[in-house]
Predict the 3D structure of the following.
Amino acid sequence: MKKLLILYSELAGYTVACLNYFATVHPDVEIHLVSWPVNPEAPFRFQIAETIKKYDRKKLDDRSLNDLVTAIKPDLILCSGWMDKAYLNAVKSRSSESRATLLMDNRWSGSIKQRAATLLAPFMITRHFDYAWVPGDDQKFYATKLGFRPEKIRTGFYSGDTNLFAIKEPRQHCPHRFIYAGRYYDFKGVRELWNEFIKFSDVSRSDWELWCYGIGDIEPVTHPKIKHFGFQQPEQLANAVKDGGVFVLPSKFEPWGVVVHEFAAAGFPLLLSSDVGAAAQFLRDGVNGYKFNIHQTGDLQNAFQKIAESPQEELLKMSRESARLGNSINPETWSKTLYDLLKDN
């Protein structure tokens, strides 16, 4: 029996969905999962498969993690990034029979910090991993900068829970509502979202509304056409938004954004900031939505206007294209990649 050890940061519903699917289709793999507690602003409740052995990272120090690696003798270790030094040390402590895969979602920006990382990585990071598993091509490019050979990099690491969100049949109507789902943090661009929508609403005087799902440290704005529903568990969110609309994500910083995948699979036209990494995979600008610059005043307002001026036939065409793109990655493709990594051991 193959043994898999996952050293993870904070779990999310989509990660659990992929793990549960993998555990179901590969009962021949013994799975051990170490993870940090969930973020208070995203208090997910998980139903992790009973066959997956779970460990609380908060209760494990460096020595305990190293001992766990020694006891399990995993064939493969998946490790979230390199910021958790105890995780990195645990990877270093593995036996020569074990393989290790680095999980990373940062895109290459060419910043001073990233350039420094490329100089240090061959000595402090890359040498300790056999593979890198990343969401998309932008992250793959960064991984090559860190020293991973292209043939040692896999894409498609992040997958939404398409079994939960994907539409079963094409939509017949697109309601006049923009949907935001995410935390109420500054880097998410929620203030800009609300301000730009209010300007759009004042100018256009259309019947479009903005529905927001999430919580955070920013006080929700009050406006007759903006509704706030608080944090929703994935099942609640999928049910709440099943009647459609247009999804908008105005992030100032978003290495990927799995929520984009989920709403694409659900058949939503997309309005995405140019800082959203998942746009490369799930948005065709002008085809199933529009990209905008959140740092440029008025750009999001213009995107709202483009959608509002689109006839139902055009919005439904966008919906179908989003659903098609949303099916390009799913828990099945995720599981196949993981199993291939295990077999390569």
In short: The chain has two domains: 2-159+329-343, 163-326. The radius of gyration is 21 Å. Residues 272 and 319 are 15 Å apart (CA to CA). Residues 163-326 form a domain with the Rossmann fold fold (CATH 3.40.50.2000).
